[in-house]
Amino acid sequence: MKAIAASRLSKAQERILGARPFALQMQRVLSGLAGQVDTAAHPLLIQRNSNAPVRPTLVVVVTADKGLCGGFNTSIIKEASNVIANSGAAGSSLGLVGRKGGEFFRKRGFEVRFEQMDVFNQLKYHHAQTIGRSVIEAFVSNEVDSVQLVYNEFKSVLQQRVVVDQVLPIRVAQNSTAGTDERRSNYLYEPEPAAIFDKLIPRYVEIQFYRALLESAAAEHAARLTAMEAASNNATEMIDDLTLYMNKVRQATITGEIIEIVSGAEAL
User: Fold this and answer.
1) Entry pTM
2) Which of 2, 39, 111, 230 suits a disulfide with 45, CB 3.0-4.6 Å?
3) Residue 114 known to be catalytic
């Protein structure tokens, strides 16, 4: 399992390193645009009004389909449970990606809006499109107030970081270095902003989910590689300890038999 995880990790790492810059830059640009235009320009930009009826939060949880990957699934489920607990009086509904998350939350009676299993065997962009369309439909139809995405971000082979991202509505850039250029830029729209947003924002949502799936796949392989290496080392150490104990017991048995033989010979 360690060898398989290592071979798959290199491919998954290449994919996420290729997709991450585009996804992050698209997030920065749209965050800046959201601060320049009227939020009524597109339904996915509308921030919830405090006087409006409170609706649930849609929490999309990305876990693995299999275990034996250390604390990968446990950390995700723990963080998702915290997000659900802090979702307010309206509560939350769940979108589950991965078998482990589905098993945990379904047994505990949480409301599940959609669920996808076995997407990491052959991860493709259309998986993110399917999730994105379900999320957009729920948000535009005013069934949920916001969409939170919980997943494991790949940092290195030895480190993964649990991330909670607000996918919808798109966050407006704050006074930070990351959003300064986007907020100060004067964009010329051709065609109208509404037509551009109709194409750009749904694609943005899909890309953010695609990036999360790629991050989770790479992080899972890294976690499994580390867990299997630790398991192999522990097994080797246990074998050495048991072999030493076996040799001691055998030596003690042989010594006891020799003493019995010598004692018998002296008695004769």
Assistant:
1) 0.79
2) 39
3) no
Q: What are phi and psi of 66, to 5 degrees?
A: -130, 165
In a domain? residue 239: no
Residue in 69, 119, 128, 136 annotated catalytic: 69
In whole angstroms, what is the distance from residue 193 CA to residue 149 CA? Answer: 27
User: How many whole angstroms separate alpha carbon 211 and alpha carbon 239?
Assistant: 42
> What CATH number is attached to the domain comprising 66?
3.40.1380.10
Please name which of 128, 134, 132, 72 lies closest in space to residue 100, comparing C-alpha atoms. 72
Domain count, the chain: 1
Residue 249 located in a structural domain: no
Q: What is the full per-residue pLDDT of the chain (268 aa) written as tens digits?
A: 888 888 888 888 888 888 888 888 887 777 767 666 666 666 777 776 655 557 888 999 999 998 888 889 999 999 999 999 888 767 788 999 999 998 899 888 888 888 988 888 888 999 999 999 999 998 888 888 889 999 998 887 888 889 998 888 877 665 444 444 544 556 676 777 667 777 888 888 899 999 999 999 999 999 988 889 888 999 999 999 999 999 999 999 999 888 888 888 777 7
What b/e sequence results for 243-255 when a residue is b if at least 16 CB atoms lie within 10 Å of its CB, and e otherwise? eeeeeeeeeeeee
